[in-house]
Amino acid sequence: MSFPKQFVWGAASSAYQIEGASKEGGKGPSVWDTFCQKKGAVWNGQSGAVACDHYHRYKDDVGLMRGIGLQAYRFSISWPRVLPNGVGKVNARGLAFYDKLVDEIFAANITPWVTLFHWDLPHALHRRGGWLNPDSSDWFAEYTHAVVAKLSDRVQHWITLNEPQVFISLGYQDGRHAPGDKLPFKKLLQVGHNALLAHGKAVQVIRKHATLRPQIGYAPFAVLSYPATDGAADIRAARQDMFTISGKHCWNNTWWMDPVFKGRYPEDGLKLFGKDAPSFTQKEMETISQPVDFFGVNAYMGNKVRAGKGGKPERVPLPVGHDLTAFRWPVTPEIMHWGLRFYWERYRHPIVVTENGMSNIDWVALDGRVHDPQRIDFTRRHLLALERAIAAGVDVSAYFHWSVMDNFEWADGYKERFGLIYVDYSNQKRVLKDSAHWYKQVIATNGKCLHKEP
Ligand code: FCB
User: Fold this and answer.
1) What digits encode the pLDDT tens for the residues 239-277?
2) pTM tops 0.90
3) Domain ranges of the chain
4) Quick check: helix, strand or coil at residue 418?
5) Exposed/middle/buried for residue 65 (C-beta within 10 Å: 0-12, 13-18, 19+)
6) Which among 122, 311, 360, 398 could bridge 8 via Cys, Cβ 3.0 to 4.6 Å?
7) Catalytic (active-site) positions
8) 3-class secondary-structure state, position 216
9) Is residue 162 within 6 Å of ligand 1 at its C-beta?
10) Which residue minimizes the CA distance to atom 4 of ligand 1?
11) Percent of residues in the chain assigned helix, strand, coil, to nearest 5
């Protein structure tokens, strides 16, 4: 077993989580800037106003990435930095930042992968109804065009939306994320439909206007299942569990993936959601299902499933004391084998792991280093399972670790540390964690060292 020769090893971040400089360079406020000001919205009243100050330190940060030997770096563009009002006048200084960042990344021999939307909607657009406004997909197309005009002479890898399920559920249903709304289900699904349309229109804009031949992907949140055993009945049950819509909420795969990859909403969802489902035209479905080049999988954890009575999927509770990350997310590396396999079987789209990682309780030890054996073990187990998926014939061409550096973890503020690089927020000093040094070996050996004890 081995990784293909051309396999790409990367790490990821997003604008609001690392940039800071929230009021600099002509940037307008995003819904996250305003949400963080609400009392009790974010852990300890924290915000991304400064974050990792990456906006000012991007050169050093890219230098560290070069040190790790990253081959690709996935980052997102802040929409309100480019268009402070969301639409209309382009902020040249905002685009200039990404222009310089892209050059710096190339100079470090790293390939940039650009995410267009990682949740920081311009506040000005939120005031106009945000994703509920029927014009929202056109706004996104306009923004995409501005970015493509500036960067597509160098950038070839594009990701439209990051995890619609997450920003829609947490932001528009639970109110736990920006903009903090609690919409009824029907409106929520309309938000979803508009976001899917935005994805499709962005794909069209990129294809039409990109200077260099683009590689375009979409990165929904992966709701993953894996079989309790390798027996055929459990495998069938896990597969069925992954592709069934079983509740009136957004936490499923098919509602968000079938429209993009198959050009239709799933039947079971339409039936279950009934009158709450959005009405749409065939033309809209065609827009949503524009051909894309890769399927981005953000994989963190999954459900263990066995065949119950009559083969029906049954989720198996994890035993007491099961491995958990600092976030208390279960450690389930099987997802990288089974989850990816199930996606490949259903969608037949080349897969890129656009996010995978864990939060850990990291600190700088007396020896000046950050020892994070859990992250090394977690990543090693997930990558070995990924290698198994590849051996089983799944087309996976890249892996992005989340995250390149510790950052602002949304409503959890700076409590959770996901980085390969440790950030001391009191002085913005960075320290490469042990996992970063280890990942460097993984990259240098194209995964061969995974089979050796670290
Ligand atoms: C994903 C998000 C990313 C980060 C990780 C931990 O859902 O895309 O921004 O918060 O989780």
Assistant:
1) 999 999 999 999 999 999 999 999 999 999 999 999 999
2) yes
3) 8-451
4) coil
5) buried
6) 398
7) 163, 355
8) strand
9) yes
10) 409
11) 45, 15, 40
